[in-house]
Write a structure and sequence with these properties.
By secondary structure, this protein is mainly α. It contains eleven helices and four strands. α2 crosses α9.
Length: 242
């Protein structure tokens, strides 16, 4: 079994050019915190996320997991379309619209990607952090986020508008309650619960398709935090230039 050849969703590509450009010193006033949080995230991946993803992979066949990945990717059409348009990438925005139309119909709600397989229409990944960078907004200082990993000030504040473009965050049903021991009721939104469940499903499914790639990425790192920091910052700079 080969762990690393199971996913072509860009994890390796995301970091493939970490040594391609001349290194620029990263503004890192939170280095102490960032080191601690990197170690926390590393431990969470090793002891929680990776074992869960391996169990999930054992239960669900590869074809089904790729279908789930394709479904969630199709749902993120608004994020890609809006940010391509904001960056004046009209052709890319148009292709995103065509991809969504084809995959949502012929592709059965996006579980299949005929737009790519039949028509050669590739996805054009863009987010609000890249859009801000396109208009000259710098990354600011580097910060490692709990569970989410490397980021910077620009990309961190871009997470909110990115989330608003994700249809998963608009799931709505009736509220339901959990009883407290005292016999009272604590109102918990079913919407929030379902959003969390869908996010967990998306995360676990994604990781199940790229098991072993994180380990391969970090195996040659002398120090994990500065390695991941520099890889992230250089990759984001590369994406913004494209």
């Amino acid at each position: 079994e080969t762990d690393t050849d199971e996913e072509e969703d860009g994890f390796d590509a995301e970091f493939e050019d970490e040594f391609g450009d001349a290194e620029k010193e990263v503004f890192d006033p939170l280095s102490g915190y960032n080191i601690v949080m990197t170690n926390f995230n590393d431990g969470f991946y090793i002891f929680v996320l990776d074992p869960v993803a391996r169990g999930y992979r054992w239960v669900l066949p590869d074809t089904a997991r790729r279908g789930v990945k394709s479904f969630f990717h199709n749902l993120l059409f608004p994020l890609r379309f809006v940010n391509n348009a904001l960056q004046l990438k009209v052709k890319n925005a148009g292709e995103e619209f065509l991809r969504f139309s084809i995959n949502s119909t012929i592709g059965i709600l996006g579980f299949w990607d005929p737009a790519k397989e039949w028509f050669g229409l590739e996805a054009h990944e863009e987010d609000f952090g890249q859009t801000l960078g396109f208009y000259g907004v710098g990354g600011g200082f580097h910060v490692v986020l709990p569970f989410l990993g490397p980021s910077n000030v620009r990309d961190m504040f871009s997470l909110y508008p990115d989330m608003q473009m994700d249809p998963v965050n608009y799931v709505e049903t009736r509220p339901y309650n959990f009883p407290k021991q005292e016999g009272e009721y604590l109102g918990v939104s079913r919407q929030t619960l379902q959003q969390t469940e869908l996010t967990l499903l998306k995360t676990i499914n994604r990781e199940s398709l790229r098991i072993g790639q994180y380990e391969n990425l970090k195996k040659d790192a002398i120090e994990l935090y500065p390695f991941l920091r520099d890889v992230y910052e250089q990759n984001r700079a590369k994406l913004i230039k494209e």
